[in-house]
């Protein structure tokens, strides 16, 4: 199933030289992650629970 994502947002940790990722949410709650410089249809899709776990792990490593 192809989901429609709206309001792609760039990571606040993006480099000024364009190295970044973008994140958006679909109507069903699925989180999409993509590289804006690559194929716009190449989207990693994760559940809200998976996204929360990923964020928690990243924040724990920053602490």
TrEMBL record:
Domain DUF397 positions: 7-59
Origin: domain of life: Bacteria
InterPro entries assigned: DUF397
Protein name: DUF397 domain-containing protein
